[in-house]
Amino acid sequence: MTSAALALVLTSAVIHASWNFLVKRSGHKIVFFWAMAAAGLPLVTGPAIFFAVREDFGLTQLWYCLGTSTLHALYAITLTRGYYLGDLSSVYPVSRGIGPALVPLLAVLLLNETVSGWAALGIGLVVIGIFAIQVDSRFLGDLAHPFRALTAPAMRVAIATGLVISCYSLWDKAGLNHDVPPLTLLLFTIIGNFVGLWPAVLWGIEPGTLRSEWDSQRRSILTAGVIAPLGYALVLIALTTSRVSYIAPSREVGIVIGTAMGVLILGEGYGLTRIWGSLLIVAGVIALAVAP
After folding, report:
1. Domain span at 151
2. Taking Cα atoms as reference points, which of 269, 285, 252 lies closest to residue 86?
3. Cβ–Cβ < 8 Å for 91, 158
């Protein structure tokens, strides 16, 4: 990976953790995320159409764009649900870290592939890190508590979110390889977020909720609406110059930032165990990235 690509990805990691923090801190997660997507659409639509026309956008490119919209609709649904059920400092690192560990495990189980020592180390570190995040100092004598925490609804949704993240990372890279302009692909990710949550906003909330969320969170919604597409645009640009196996793991440095925000700013429980756990997850993801 070039130094320029690394700088893009690390900046994106900080941005990603920041807007996830804003979503978690909001009053109504679904409304906030939907409004955030609505705020981002006008910023991206013009440039996305310009590059689509310039690059001779066709049916193949449209197929990849529709696929990423579908995957990002699922992502919006699972992510907001996870933040309703659990803490930022637990849902965020698990959802971001589980995908890179599951891919090689599934390859072994389903494709009869083998994993190298580095890959095995990486998987082990991710698993230990996820376990460490569930350790609560109040229940140190209860050895089964972390296992029960892993089966909680918030963790099940976080794992589902991680699966979706791994799917859209691979799909978006394939789309870029088939000459989908990065900003056009970005537009369809935002459309997916917007459309995926639209039914819940139209029929699943009480009257006045949208107005109330906008009045109380207007500045945060607009901030997230700007920085979220900016962050993903940086990743897509980096993907045009580097392999997804390098980009995706490097981006997970944001795991530590998001976890720290949850613990230090939102005052979530567990404290340092979650930060240490997130560091182990990042170390595991990096080991997976360098594995032969």
Report:
1. 3-290
2. 269
3. yes
